[in-house]
Amino acid sequence: xxxxxxxxxxxxxxxxxxxxxxxxxxxxxxxxxxxxxxxxxxxxxxxxxxxxxxxxxxxxxxxxxxxxxxxxxxxxxxxxxxxxxxxxxxxxxxxxxxxxxxxxxxxxxxxxxxxxxxxxxxxxxxxxxxxxxxxxxxxxxxxxxxxxxxxxxxxxxxxxxxxxxxxxxxxxxxxxxxxxxxxxxxxxxxxxxxxxxxxxx
Length: 201
Known about the structure:
Blueprint: H1 6-15, H2 23-33, H3 38-53, E1 56-57, E2 64-65, E3 82-86, H4 89-96, E4 104-107, H5 125-135, E5 139-143, H6 148-160, E6 167-170, H7 186-194
Parallel strand pairs: 3-4, 3-5, 5-6
Antiparallel strand pairs: 1-2
């Protein structure tokens, strides 16, 4: 696609590097920005700059935050006795959107994957172990991917905390609502049967 302005072309190219943003979407975004006032553009530009200068990571759970503790860890209404262990920030956002979980989180920032050269030392596992030993939560929920990496990470963490008086659980893995059984993979279907729940009339 040819652009009449090199500035527009460069901005489109930068926007299209973002996940889920193609050239057409990036072009629409830039054309929309051209309609904004200089003040609105300045505000957007300053906010983008602040991503690197002002956003911090929560000292407790490693969530993004504007302060030492994120809004979740600092919320007195949260159940501090339950910690949900997730791979990254996207998982926190997904769970929060359900409005079903009222505990706290711990973001690992990845999963153990020897094939990819990712070890436990490169993740936020040591801080989780320390946190559990200091805070003494009653339950650790593993909300990790149903993959070899996810299972390896769960196994490693549970082994590290086997001496602690804590309950381990993982999110249910089963058939999606509206899903057809014939299209489910064998592992998912098998786990759905093993982890079946009582049917209430």
